[in-house]
């Protein structure tokens, strides 16, 4: 569906829903350690849900070849499934260490990417594979963003 510049977008928010067997561990990890602010929390007779703010959201679509390339750059081999969550943080090295201390498995320590960011890869609570990335700057607006889009202002 195409939108003209005169109409508002049909989508107002991207919400990724994670079902975590250990709800308390996942909530602590994402809210208290990673620092995602709590927007709301709800309970039902059978369980709980907490909605956390994660800044600006984007949806990155990659074909298998480019997903292979990203994994090769960040980890050195193909490791991600069809879904990976990327968080832009101020200091990916420090945040990687903090999340590892809170129970995440470090798959790959931070590495400088061809798109001029410092990226690490972790396996986090809720069975999510995370990329943490810190933009290093210095580009002319045509660099490759986190997922490799050339000149996309949303990834710069």
From TrEMBL:
Pfam family, one: Glyoxalase
Ranges where the VOC domain occurs: 12-135
Protein name (record): VOC family protein
């Amino acid at each position: 569906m195409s939108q003209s510049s005169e109409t508002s977008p049909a989508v107002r928010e991207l919400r990724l829903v994670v079902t975590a067997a250990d709800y308390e561990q996942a909530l602590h990890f994402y809210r208290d350690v990673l620092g995602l602010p709590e927007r709301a929390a709800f309970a039902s007779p059978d369980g709980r849900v907490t909605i956390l703010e994660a800044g600006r959201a984007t949806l990155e679509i990659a074909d298998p070849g480019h997903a292979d390339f990203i994994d090769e750059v960040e980890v050195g081999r193909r490791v991600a499934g069809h879904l990976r969550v990327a968080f832009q943080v101020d200091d990916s090295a420090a945040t990687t260490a903090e999340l590892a201390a809170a129970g995440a498995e470090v798959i790959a320590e931070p590495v400088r990417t061809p798109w001029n960011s410092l990226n690490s890869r972790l396996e986090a609570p809720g069975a999510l594979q995370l990329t943490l990335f810190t933009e290093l700057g210095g580009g002319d607006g045509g660099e490759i963003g986190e997922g490799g889009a050339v000149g996309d202002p949303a990834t710069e």
